[in-house]
Amino acid sequence: MSEIELKLLLDKKMSSEIWTRLKASKLAHGAPVTKTLRSIYLDTPDHALNKAGIALRLRRDGRRWIQGVKTRGTLHGGLSQVGEIENPAPGGRVCLDAISDTSIRDEIVDRINGAPLQPVCETVIRRRTSELLLSDGTRAELALDSGEVRAGERSAELSELEIELLAGNASGLFDIALILVPDGGLQFSRLSKAARGYLLAQEGRIDSPLAPRNAQNLALDPAQTAEQAARDVLRECLDQIATNVLVVRQLDDDEGPHQLRVGLRRLRSAFSVYAAVLRSPEMKRLDAEARWLGQEVGSLRDLDVVANDMARREAETHPDEPGLSALADVVARQAIERREQLRKLLVGARVQAFLIDLARFVETRGWLVPQDFVQTERLAAPITTLARASLNKRWKKTAKHAQGLETLTVEQRHELRKELKKLRYAVEFFCSLFPAKRIDPFLKRLKKLQTVFGDLNDAATLKAMFTGADVPGAEAPSIQRAIGWMIGASQARAELGWTGAKALWRDLEQARPFWK
């Protein structure tokens, strides 16, 4: 049997408000039920089952013991999909012969290979449940879990909201989450309870350390359909965005806003690359929300870059100019203020709704348009066909913007920079479908050209920041001198790099397009 549930982490304040909102929503079908569950996870001494993605559990529910096996689990955007088999376990004893699915039973026996089974970890949870019924007939079980994860002498508190699909459409699980926690603050659970228990046993914690998350390389399969590949790419974008939202909310790490902006840009590029198969009103709406959030995050990222990468660099290189260090301090204070404003935004209702709706879009095929009768054919097209067409389209658009390169205006250079970035993202999305020896020369030359345009963008960002209505340190002559210094230095650096742009573009043109 397959189990589908939305797993979300809560703080104590949210937990106390859930039932009040549930009552007001009139979704509950029957009275809530409260019980205590003790679940013991067993494995071999070398954790052979866990390495194979299998969780073997004994659960005590009241006076009953139930044996459970979970397999083939995935967890993206809080949506957990896992195979589950349960059977009675009299006396709380494991009985592998009772597992009804012979293939899973045989795999477990093979993985164990005669080794003894022993407890690895356990959870002791106070669970309050209620069955919910949506107007479209979707039925779900709401479970509010509060308790502990234990492993030997170690323990850690856990508060989690699980919304399990009983019948109907999985999209309804996301509707329920927004109804019960409409004001923001939710976060996707990234690990199952079993995974948290193993982590506690091995490393003394129940979650992975929070750190800025870079985009990760995807290994697309040439046998995939366009839809399957799109789902995998969008999942990667979602994971990068959701993780870095938490990073910016909780950490003072300059890399967090940078990687969040990168994730949002990659998402919008993925929408563009896969537009032929995913085009829908919902995709267009999510793209607009990603653009809005990217602009909000970008304002902090620009301040961080100017303060820490540009002004500090000039101050260290030219210590005889005290205004440079003072200017860096002024912009750094502005960044602190902007970070606090952004944190309030990221914990709010609009960003939460964006993340929930994006997860719904990715995990429940939210791109389907009932009235588009040929969409199924486009979704089923081979990913290699779409990859070649998309890369060719991006290359042609980039080449068009690069015409007359040496005579481009500032605005035209900016447009070319954006096209180069989109081209690079498209290459990264599809690179696993082509031989590395063909991709690497092209990508290396593309990155060199992007560096030139990065300097141009930094110069434009700095000039806009220091020539607007609210110029920092306007009352201090030394800071005004530093501003002039910074603008002049950045413009000189950008123009110096630009002198080599034509040669770099010629090198890129001469690199054989690897997708042809």
Can you give me a brief rundown of this structure?
The protein is 55% helix and 18% strand. By secondary structure, it is of the alpha+beta class.
Task: Give an overview in words.
Residues 1-204 form the CYTH domain. InterPro entries: CHAD_dom, CHAD_dom_sf, CYTH-like_dom_sf, CYTH_domain, YgiF. This is CHAD domain-containing protein. Residues 223-516 form the CHAD domain. The protein contains 17 helices and nine strands. The chain has helices at 12-25, 48-51, 102-112, 171-180, 193-203, 226-250, 255-273, 275-278, 281-317, 322-346, 349-363, 375-379, 383-401, 410-430, 436-466, 477-498, 501-510; strands spanning 2-9, 33-43, 55-61, 64-76, 79-88, 118-133, 139-151, 154-167, 187-188. The chain has an eight-stranded antiparallel beta barrel with strand order 1-5-4-3-2-6-7-8.
List the SSEs and their pairings:
Elements: E1 2-9, H1 12-25, E2 33-43, H2 48-51, E3 55-61, E4 64-76, E5 79-88, H3 102-112, E6 118-133, E7 139-151, E8 154-167, H4 171-180, E9 187-188, H5 193-203, H6 226-250, H7 255-273, H8 275-278, H9 281-317, H10 322-346, H11 349-363, H12 375-379, H13 383-401, H14 410-430, H15 436-466, H16 477-498, H17 501-510
Helix pairs in contact: 4-11, 6-7, 6-10, 6-11, 6-13, 7-9, 7-14, 9-10, 9-11, 10-16, 13-14, 14-15, 15-16, 15-17
Protein name: CHAD domain-containing protein
Pfam family, one: CHAD
Domain CHAD: 223-516
